[in-house]
Amino acid sequence: MKFCIIGCGLIGQKRARAISKKYFISWVVDKNLTSAENLSKQYKGCNYTNSWKEAIESSMTDAIIIALPHDLLEMVALFSIKKNKPTFIEKPGAISAKSMKKILLVAKTANVTVKIGYNHRFHPTILKAKEIINAETIGDLMYVRGRYGHGGRKGYDKEWRSKKSISGGGELLDQGSHLIDLSQMFLGDLNKVSGKIYNYFWNMEVEDNAFISLENEKGQSAWLHASWTEWKNLFSFEIFGKKGKLQIDGLGGSYGVEKLTLFKMLPELGPPETTFWEYPVEDKSWNIEIDNFVDSISNCNNSDGSLENALYVLKVINQIYQQNTNK
Fold first, then answer.
1. CATH number for domain 2-119+287-293, candidates 3.40.50.720, 1.20.1250.20, 1.10.150.450, 3.30.930.10
2. In the chain, where are the structural domains located?
3. Digit-coded pLDDT (tens) for 122-135
4. Do residues 275 and 247 lie in contact, with contact meaning Cβ atoms separated by under 8 Å?
5. What is the pLDDT of residue 301?
6. H or E element: which one contains 258?
7. First and final CA of the chain: distance in angstroms?
8. How does DSSP classify residue 325?
9. Do 30 and 50 meet the contact criterion of CB atoms below 8 Å apart?
10. What is the DSSP letter of 276?
11. Helix 307-323 to helix 175-187 angle, to the nearest 10 degrees?
């Protein structure tokens, strides 16, 4: 499998490291040719260019990774799909739900595998939590509660994420999309949507905080907070069942050691039985997700990170932005 990576920024570099463990990187692309050249030097036999069309059309390209600002995702993805190249698009997959619908329609017509990069689905704590839930250890699920944030960095208000025409939105679209995606993964579509967005600290066109409330027809709900004013990086995701609770903390690196805690309720209630798992190793979610993408190409398995999942997330986000149009 020969990969072309379009976009040599932080995420493109992470994808390259993950892909190179098992697969071949034939092309890297960036509008800054020096950035593309520097990345290509790290991988034997890798070509570089500032022309994404040239790389996509190359006979040395089997699959495409698109790691670009949000306003460019649709244009590059549609070209790749129409060239019948399996395509992996970094989350959120498009700048808006309207844009994602176009990608979904073209992908279905072309019958090409297209996946969206929600790598949090492949973190060990999330995979273990799914296993525990499927074993009915914590009973029927009631609700989830999630918090995710960082504090940005000096000059963050001048970067592309702060410009609405390029990003499409702020922290709700950035880390908030991960929280919404995970909530859907565990509880299904939550179509009763409400939320508030705020600019508490950063002087920018887009929000630095988002508070989200979601609910489905069963009454299951998700309470979520995504923040660019979380001065100590934080990831916390809790899943509550009628027989217990799963608590996920950390993502590795600056977010702290990844840990899953199972609180299993006793018949008499009171203090629960507590079991925990720690994963103090390198984040493998990027590697597992690429393997999942390759498997999807071979076996037409589009369950995790599907276009339908991504469209749902963007619809939720669009609803919240519409609810806050006067802000």
1. 3.40.50.720
2. 2-119+287-293, 120-283+313-323
3. 999 999 999 999 99
4. no
5. 59
6. strand 258-264
7. 47
8. T
9. yes
10. E
11. 120
CB-CB contact of 181 with 189 (8 Å): no
Mean of the pLDDT values across residues 256-277?
95
Q: Provide the strand spans (E) within 150-252.
A: 192-198, 209-215, 221-227, 234-241, 244-249
State whether the Cα torsion 75-81-84-90 is positive or negative. Answer: positive
- Beta bridge partners of residue 246, listed in sequence order: 239, 262
Q: Give the whole-angstrom CA distance, residue 179 versus residue 191.
A: 15
Q: Measuring CA to CA, how many Å separate 185 from each of 70, 95, 312? A: 23, 21, 11
Pairwise CA distance, residues 175 & 172, whole Å: 6
Pairing of strands 141-149, 47-49: unpaired
d(CA 120, CA 148): 12
- Interstrand relation of 87-90 and 63-66 (parallel, antiparallel or unpaired): parallel
Which amino acid, one-letter code, is at 115?
A: K
Distance CA 325, CA 327 (A): 6
Average confidence score pLDDT of the chain: 95
| CB proximity list for 283: less than 8 A, separation 6 or greater | 123, 251, 252, 253, 258
Instruction: Give the span between the Cα atoms of 252 and 235, in whole angstroms.
Output: 10
The string of pLDDT tens digits covering residues 270-319 is 999 999 999 998 889 999 999 999 999 987 655 677 999 999 999 999 99
Compute φ and ψ for 64, nearest 5 degrees: -120, 135
